[in-house]
Amino acid sequence: MAKRVAVIGGGTSGLACIKCCLDEGLEPVCFETSDDIGGLWRFKENPDPDRASIYHSLIINTSKEMMCFSDFPIPAHFPNYMHHSLIMDYFHMYADHFQLKRHIRFQTKVLHVTPRPDFPHSGQWDVETEAKDGRREKQVFDAVMVCTGHHCHPHLPLRDFPGAANVMTKQTGSMCKEQQHNVSELWCNRINTFKGKYFHSRDYKNPEEWRGKRVVVIGIGNSGGDIAVELSRMAKQVYLSTRRGSWILNRVGIKGFPADMTFNKRALWFFRLLSVGFLNKWREEQLNKRFNHKLYGLQPAHRVFSQHPTINDDLPNRILSGTVSVKTNVKEFRGSSVVFEDGTVEDDIDLVVFATGYTFSFPFLPSHLIPVSKNKVSLYKYVYPPGLECQTLAVIGLIQPLGAIMPISEMQARWATRVFKGLCKLPPMSAMLKEIKAKEEAMAKRYVAAQRHTIQVDYLPYMDELAKQVGVCPPILKLLLTDPRLALNIIFGPCTPYQFRLYGPGQWDGARQAILTQWDRVTKPLKTRCTPEPQSQRSSHSLIFSVSVAALLSALYYSRASLHALIADPSSLLDKIRAFLPSPLTTH
């Protein structure tokens, strides 16, 4: 009998897990608390408790060729950066094509996942669920894949928000726990006395309600930047409060192509040989050519590669237009006023939006299995808890990549399902713990300390790392000899997910063609108007000059009698050449 696998969550990662289970001959059963697939990307006007939620205008910041599942390209006519509704359309296409929905139990909540008494030998789990009508059921599964992501619980930092506690610390030198608790209570009381409205960014949906209002947005991550920009088109004034500042990246890259397709290339491997300091300096200079981050009040103390990037094409324009004003961190609230740490005060504030991220947890698991503290979790290659006797529990999609998460979740699922079948082996616990510690130290050294920098990975190195476990790395040297055209596209083109379907387990016959046509799908939605090919003035002059010289030389050839006279008097030759040139002649 096929091994039964419980998949918890029907979002991006859950869909990939169902598909990979089916590919490996496993029997998946997916439990999804809502009535549809999509997870984070499903827009709801009234979000469910303890679930992330998105705003109506949200557009993804990874391009379609970089974010698609590796054996199912996004349709060519879809825009390169898609609205959330199109992402949902794609997910439904994917689920329908591979017939995934029949394996999903909607409106079913997972209550408990516990190892069975014989777990050290069987590796099996008891999974207790609750349906919408309250009916509970307990089933036995051979493996469990957790796909609940890291956008679980809105982080609304009212108690530990910097401000009152920082001021008191400076005045008294130090505080005992009781004093700190009292300060936290004081801070909560102050926000509760705020006369305006405040909420987490998950509760923001559209800007119309705030037309003509004065708004403070706290946090300069991707959500904070997007919400500040959108509100600034309706509100009277938007103040964007940031603790550290941020480097701002573009969606639009070189020559207007998607930016993530220009820097996720294997040909750029030599960058890893350069010093981090040099790379930071080079990248910061490139970003400051677009606009001076220091002049705009955005430049942080940390370097550009020490943070998860904020991607926003419109924010500099809104700052330059005065509709968004960048402020320091909030110190406290006073009635309808907001006091910032630099001492400035903004009065008559109508709304405060906390774009302060999320926390995650696994309430259905015994706390000792995957302990979580301040969004820190110890997982081997961000997938496996290292202390289990049988590796039949995998966490999929608990990752914050510098790139798209969909292909990474899929690759994790491909690896996990083969581990469940015994086709891939994990190292001893000591080796896993050693690698976990090394990754934690590297992350702490590279990134500024923050709750959002606990599960960071670089897209291409991490994809290759997992691909080696599965055995699906593209054999570039072999391809250079047997299929040089494909090899050059793999080396110098973007590292799209199709590369990991060329060979090995899960090979897809359409992978080669998908790679060779990826730029066609990029340009397809842009070709909405036929444009003439302009001829530059300089090329026109060059053509006229060439024709003129050719005509003159032909005339000389047939008038060899006057050749000696022309050589004796070069100025007459120049006069004849000028006669054939447009007037006036511009010298470059």
From TrEMBL:
For the biological process aspect of GO, one term held by this record is: lipid metabolic process
GO molecular function (one):
NAD(P)H oxidase H2O2-forming activity
Give the family this protein belongs to, as stated in its UniProt record.
Answer: Belongs to the FMO family.
Q: Return the protein name.
A: Flavin-containing monooxygenase
Q: Where in the cell is it found?
A: Endoplasmic reticulum membrane; Microsome membrane
Protein task? Acts as a Baeyer-Villiger monooxygenase on a broad range of substrates. Catalyzes the insertion of an oxygen atom into a carbon-carbon bond adjacent to a carbonyl, which converts ketones to esters. Active on diverse carbonyl compounds, whereas soft nucleophiles are mostly non- or poorly reactive. In contrast with other forms of FMO it is non- or poorly active on 'classical' substrates such as drugs, pesticides, and dietary components containing soft nucleophilic heteroatoms. Able to oxidize drug molecules bearing a carbonyl group on an aliphatic chain, such as nabumetone and pentoxifylline.
Name the principal localization, coarsely classed: endoplasmic reticulum
Which Pfam families does the UniProt record give?
A: FMO-like (PF00743)
Name one cellular component (GO) term.
endoplasmic reticulum membrane
| Reactions this protein catalyses | heptan-2-one + NADPH + O2 + H(+) = pentyl acetate + NADP(+) + H2O; hexan-3-one + NADPH + O2 + H(+) = ethyl butanoate + NADP(+) + H2O; heptan-4-one + NADPH + O2 + H(+) = propyl butanoate + NADP(+) + H2O; octan-3-one + NADPH + O2 + H(+) = pentyl propanoate + NADP(+) + H2O
Q: Gene symbol?
A: LOC113063050
Q: What is its EC number?
A: 1.-.-.-
Which controlled-vocabulary keywords does the entry list? Endoplasmic reticulum, FAD, Flavoprotein, Lipid metabolism, Membrane, Methylation, Microsome, Monooxygenase, NADP, Oxidoreductase, Phosphoprotein, Transmembrane, Transmembrane helix
Required cofactor names: FAD
Instruction: Report the source organism.
Output: Carassius auratus
Keyword Oxidoreductase attributed: yes
Topologically, how does it sit relative to the membrane? Single-pass membrane protein
Give the first-level EC class, as a single word: oxidoreductase
